[in-house]
Amino acid sequence: MIPTKAAIIDMGTNTFHLLLVELYDNKYETIYKEKIPVKIGQGGISQNIIHPDAIKRALHTLKHFRSMIDGEGIQNIFAFATSAVRNAENGNEFVRQIKDLFQIDVNVIDGKEEAQMIYEGIRFSGSLNGETYLMMDIGGGSVEFIIGNSNEAFWRQSFEIGGQRMLDLFHYHDPILNEEVDNLTYYLQEKLTELKEAINLYQPKGLVGASGTFDTLTDIHYASLNQSKPKTQQVFQLSRDGFEVILQKLLTLNKEERLNIKGMIPMRVDMIVVASCLIEFILKLVPVDNLICSTFALKEGAIAQLMGKHSMAAAVNG
């Protein structure tokens, strides 16, 4: 069957991703990909608005994305926005602006839908088998948790406790104070009671982290061993001990010092401290020896869904 070209735009609270792909029946090829730290949650997420400066950054980035899409002659554009936009009072107006300026229809997905797409992305990466896993994706605005295996997701939920929110609420000093870490832990205990109940019910045996923070943690781990991560690999392991070494470092360094850690990227340097505290909290609920880190998440889940539709169309037309 003739491949279909498609563009996926993932408008995350922290990062905007553009992925241009060619879809086949059971695989895809990446034409181009780019990520830009737009940080649309900055300055407004705790007040449920998108700050004017953040809107400017977003529109500037989307203009660039639109020109890349047009350069490839792609008609099929799948754009979706998550926590920062779905909770913002000016979110609908922002979406209308994007439609007027760039003729891009943005689908503002709810938390359950976001969690399902993340699950499909993780499954697509080959991270799962018949075992039951807890999967997590730490976004800037929300954190998605899914419990399931390679066949299905038994439970999925989105919590509005993302990196930008935790940063605004708890990370006032740099390095972070012990007291701030304690306050963050109490907050997570309060916010994640439903997750604790689900863990008790389904008893996951493994923990999978999707993309973002987990990509950076594995980058740092590999860099500490003077190794580079294989570019074509989608699944990495990070030992609990390896994670603890990185966490202790992050808790004692200020921003400038964190930037000097080998493997750190500037777009992750602010949120990685609170995000790692969240991972530590989860490791107490699901104590594993190794963290599985999937480079696939939301946007790859969108590709998996599109490939399913592509195959169905082929079957109907064939």
TrEMBL record:
- Write down the SUPFAM superfamilies for this protein, in alphabetical order: Actin-like ATPase domain
Top-rank lineage group of the source organism? Bacteria
- What's one GO MF term for it? pyrophosphatase activity
**Residue stretches making up the Ppx/GppA phosphatase N-terminal domain:** 27-310
Q: Name one Pfam family in it.
A: Ppx-GppA
Tell me the protein's name: Exopolyphosphatase / guanosine-5'-triphosphate,3'-diphosphate pyrophosphatase
- Source taxonomy lineage? Bacteria, Pseudomonadati, Bacteroidota, Cytophagia, Cytophagales
